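Quick start: read one record
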Amino acid sequence: MSGGISGRRLASDRPDGCNLMPGIFTVSLDLELYWGVRDKRSIQDYEANLRGERQAIQEMLVTFDAYGVHATWATLGFLFFADVSELRTRLPHATPTYHNSELSPYPYIETHEWGVDDQYHFAPEVIDLIRSYPGQEIGTHTFSHYYCLEPGQTAEAFRADMAAAIETARARGIEIQSLVFPRNQGNPQYLSLLQELGIRCYRGNEVAPFYTARNQEQQNALVRGLRLLDAYVNVTGHNTYSFEECAQSRPFNIPSSRFLRPYSPSFAWMDDLRLHRIKRAMRHAAINHRLFHLWWHPHNFGAHVAENQRFLTRILEYYEQLRQRYGMQSLNMGEISNLLERMHAG
């Protein structure tokens, strides 16, 4: 893997005897509330997920704590504010000029009827709750859910957006180290800009062609279908990564291994396959001293909190087995970047 956006998966299953680091299990969550789906769904259509999201987050934190799992919560900058009045005082000087104006949240900020559903847009108390648990990192998901590959967006607007996200977090005593690109639209041209802004690491994509970063127009049914298939059947391999690969260049790419798809009544009969797919990759990382990176959105868990929580617990129970047998450890993205920094310097 070079300094690009996609990770590189090695074919070898042979344990690397020269690598003394244990396998690493990391989790990142894209914390965005309604802003993350605003351009695709109405609040009414997605309200079950939004209504259950806070409960899901509370239960995730308790479960992470029980199993010693460290996670990065890539948090949208808008969520730090108590309400829209406070948000309006901190808007960046340059905003995205997407060709598709529906993608920008700024007109929505001015036209939405505020007050009745603020809990779906703002969550400073949730951020405080996350910070109260050990091993939980607050990263950034940009300020406005910025799309780095959509036509019309510019480097100037992205820089302004990221600066607003960093300054907003800093006002709460949080120094941002880790970034997750919204919709996984990682732009290779922006990596040097991230380093200038002090971002130490980001979550890249899996290496398979249908995981390549792309804008919304480039998404299609075939791409979505292949990703769905890969969640249940080993199409793309384990997608685990060596620390040497991740340490090659700054900012460090800590790529995705697997999106944790939410419970679906239609696909529940295949959940054992979905779990087996994840566990095999985790075991590969544990045995071969590699990195396994699981991610999802908290709102994914909101509509079926109990079912999603049970599935997550089964994953973390398996992590505990790997920890006991192979010494696997859980680190968040910021903690991993600390390790990679030492390797890069060496």
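The beta strands are 24-31, 71-75, 136-140, 178-179, 201-202, 252-253, 258-259, 291-296, 329-330.
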